[in-house]
Amino acid sequence: MRAHLLAILLCPVAAFAQFSTATYTVTFESTWSIGTHPDDFPPDPHFSGLIGAAHDATTTLWEPGELASPGIESMAETGSKALLESEVNDLILAGSAFAVLSGGGIGTSPGSVALTFDLNTDYPLVSLVSMLAPSPDWFVGVNSLALFDGADWSPLEEITLFTYDSGTDSGTMYTSPDADTQPAEPIALIDGYPFFYDGDIVEVGTFEFTLDNVVANEAETPTVSDLRISRPYPNPSLGMSSVNIYVDAHQTVRVDVFDMLGRRVYTAFNGVMTSGQHRVAVATHALQPGVYVVRMAGDQASASQRLVVR
User: At residue 77, what are phi and psi to the nearest 5 degrees?
Assistant: First the structure.
């Protein structure tokens, strides 16, 4: 066990040198109206609140041709975000997602709404959805949109939005009564009534992703850090955990805990460390259950580990 811990502490961390965080604003501009979609256009046209995730390539929230998750079904049929948010939190606990993305809706279409969020090079994909309402189970969105190409963050991406059927309700009109589809059918693009006119499927809006800022969290050139951090133990934490830190030179070190919105919620250590290995206690009894990041920063390097609080 001791040899395994030392291996964690002493391994090179040159990969951190390329890590960066990007801030984006997505603007949802809806064009759906009686002018663009005159067939049986409904009263009170609107879109539910935006909901989605920043995640990596190991997971998807939804995909055409696949069955909708319970969270996607709930969002598409009722506009509720709660169940899908819970699914994203499960992905965060599993390590395949970074954060829940949650924003406002559009009270009357046409209209617009914006949401600002962070991604990083470990979690560079965005999935984001909104219910088109009223409808049986129709929604718009993007699935696993990559905003980082391995070298650079995209400055601007505009996505044309078409309408999808979640495959969980058999209604065919905007105001159809509930008719549960059993068994459920795969998610599918609606390429007919009421979105097909003059030989084309007519869009209902756009998502425009604009890059606001990029922060490089480490040195611009790969270096072997002079600072190591072990995984917190125990993890999940039930009130108290600890991390082991190794520094190879006398320096000032700070150990902070951040929530998934990037807010510092607790400082575990802020002072001078001599060369060698140090144990730092991380008190979690005052923190709400969820996922946090334990980040240490030295004079010239930093590194992070994920911590779950129960």
Answer: -90, -35
In angstroms, what CA-CA distances link 246 with 66, 92, 252, 283, 303?
A: 46, 27, 13, 20, 11
249-287: pLDDT as tens digits: 888 999 999 987 778 899 999 999 988 888 899 999 999
Name the CATH superfamily housing domain 20-215.
F-spondin domain (2.60.40.2130)
Q: Is the dihedral of CA 259, 262, 265, 268 positive or negative?
A: positive
Predicted pLDDT of residue 217:
54
What DSSP line would sit under 109-144, residue for residue?
SSEEEEEEEEEETTB-EEEEEEEEESSSSEEEEEEE
Three-state DSSP at 26 gives strand
Nearest to 127 by CA among 213, 204, 68, 56: 56
Q: Can you tell me the distance from the alpha carbon of 240 to that of 56, in angstroms, rounded to the nearest whole number?
A: 29
Mean pLDDT, rounded, for 149-168 = 95
- Rounded CA-CA distance 189/192 in Å is 9
**CATH number of the domain at 224-309, out of 2.40.50.140, 1.10.3720.10, 2.60.40.2550, 2.60.40.10?**
2.60.40.2550
What is this structure's pTM?
A: 0.69
Q: Which helix (H) or strand (E) holds 85?
A: helix 82-94
Cα–Cα distance measured from residue 123 to residue 192, given in angstroms and rounded to the nearest whole number: 35
Residue 18: pLDDT above 80? Answer: no
- C-alpha 114/C-alpha 104 separation (Å) is 8
Q: Among residues of the chain, what percentage have pLDDT more than 90?
A: 61
Mean pLDDT to the nearest integer, 292-304? 84
Q: Where are the domains positioned within the chain? A: 20-215, 224-309
